[in-house]
Amino acid sequence: MVSCQHEKPEKPEVRDPPPDGPPGLAPVPDEQKRGGRTDTTPVPTDAPARPEVRDPPPDGPIG
């Protein structure tokens, strides 16, 4: 009977070591580590937040 399993290689596959830092986050550029400002740096939140804009209620009776 023919087996569906492939032969295992003699050596395991060599992979790059995991990056430093917590998993799931993009690496931080050196400029940002030193405190420099980049385009991806969030703007300071000193300005008040914009109010939520909603649609006006419909004209006429509801229902």
Name some characteristics of this structure.
6% helix, single chain, 63 residues, little secondary structure, 1 helix, 0% strand
Oligomer: single chain
Tally the helices: what do you get? 1
Average pLDDT level: 68
Termini distance? Answer: 70 Å
Give the low-pLDDT segments: none
Shape assignment: elongated
Structure description:
Residues 38-48 have a biased composition (Low complexity). Residues 1-18 have a biased composition (Basic and acidic residues). Residues 1-63 are annotated as: Disordered. With 63 residues, this protein is mostly loops. It has one helix at residues 30-33. The radius of gyration is 28 Å and the shape is elongated. The termini are far apart. The mean pLDDT is 68.
How would the blueprint of this fold be written?
Blueprint lengths: L29 H4 L30
Explain briefly what this protein structure is.
The protein is mostly loops and 63 residues long.
